[in-house]
Specification:
The complex is a heterodimer of chains A (120) and B (184).
Chain A lengths: L4 H10 L11 E6 L2 H5 L2 H14 L5 E6 L11 E5 L4 E4 L4 H13 L8 E5 L1
Parallel strand pairs in A: 1-2
Antiparallel strand pairs in A: 1-3, 3-4, 4-5
Chain B lengths: L4 H14 L4 E9 L4 E8 L6 H9 L14 H10 L3 E7 L3 E9 L11 H10 L5 E8 L2 E6 H8 L7 H15 L8
Parallel strand pairs in B: 1-5
Antiparallel strand pairs in B: 1-2, 2-4, 3-4, 5-6
Helix pairs in contact in B: 4-6
The chains are: A alpha+beta (120), B alpha+beta (184).
Chain lengths: 120, 184
């Protein structure tokens, strides 16, 4: 594989309505502080990125943040959708992350089993 | 707790992000002949004064501490020293921080690398507008990634476009997980 192949992806993508920098309807924020990482945040992040690529989601961006002071709930993930309250999920795993992608990001229903807080 | 080396990398990168860095350099280098493995994360963030540096290294934390960054550092230091290695933090206020951990590669207690593909992908696709570089050289495998070069190829297209994620994941895996090949 050559990095140059990214040019072709760019050209293909320029023909569609696609994800540009700083422009996404859905934001997923993963707590990657020390306690989040120790509790499995790496695999949660990997699962989100994997699902986004497999399901061709072009309006989602994944970012990370530091310690949240919620050590017992780590890994913590916030889902922010334009025009909706912020939903925080706790004790996430890769499997739970995949469910959140399907049920919340794609179908628009928060996965209440894992929700620890709804705000805004 | 943090049991794999790549988790330490993620921890160090998050420290760099928390320090407001716009430039982060990540290195994982093996020196087979010298039996050394070195991981290093350098940033141009806010840096730490001597007192904070001392606190972070020794891991003196109280619940009242406002300093919740760097919690993984005492453990990394302990692991490196236990594996016949070395540990150093250089930091200057306003200039940045460099953390270097070195291990004897053949040490029986050397932690596993973990999931380096996921870790490098994570570091790159969340780089946003920051200039992030990754250099990995181990066991005949070699990876170099640079977000400035990626941005040049991608223009305004996000690093998290599904096709870009797929490509980068495969690209990283191809360079990180190659079979160990010996010449001759």
């Amino acid at each position: 594989m050559k990095l140059e192949e990214l040019r072709q992806i760019r050209e293909r993508a320029s023909k569609e309505l696609s994800l540009r920098k700083g422009n996404a309807r859905i934001k997923v924020v993963i707590g990657m502080g020390t306690s989040g990482i120790a509790a499995g945040a790496r695999d949660v992040m990997a699962a989100f990125l994997d699902e986004i690529s497999v399901r061709n989601l072009t309006d989602v961006v994944v970012t990370q943040t530091g310690e949240r002071g919620l050590a017992s709930s780590e890994p913590v993930v916030d889902v922010l959708i334009t025009g909706e309250p912020k939903v925080s999920y706790g004790q996430m795993t890769a499997d739970k992350a995949r469910r959140v992608v399907v049920e919340h990001l794609v179908n628009g229903n928060a996965v209440t089993d894992f929700v620890i807080e709804v705000r805004g | 707790m943090i049991e794999e080396l790549d988790m330490h990398l993620l921890d160090l990168v998050q420290n760099a992000l928390s320090a407001g860095s716009s430039r982060i350099d990540v290195r994982v280098i093996c020196d087979q002949a010298a039996d050394r493995l070195t991981i290093r994360v350098a940033d141009n963030g806010t840096g730490m004064d001597e007192r904070t540096l001392e606190t972070v290294q020794r891991g003196y934390y109280s619940s009242k501490s406002e300093q919740s960054v760097g919690l993984g550092i005492p453990l990394l230091r302990e692991t490196a020293l236990h594996c016949d290695g070395r540990f150093a933090i250089e930091s200057k206020m306003g200039e940045g921080t460099t953390v270097t951990a070195e291990f004897r590669k053949s040490h029986i207690d050397l932690p596993p690398f973990g999931d380096l593909v996921a870790t490098f992908l994570n570091i790159i696709v969340t780089a946003d507008a920051r200039y992030v570089t990754i250099t990995y050289q181990c066991d005949g495998n070699e990876l170099e990634l640079d977000t400035a070069a990626l941005s040049e190829l991608l223009g305004e297209l996000s690093f998290q476009h599904p096709e870009v994620i797929r490509f980068l994941k495969a690209y990283i895996a191809e360079r990180v997980n190659k079979e160990v090949r010996r010449t001759g």
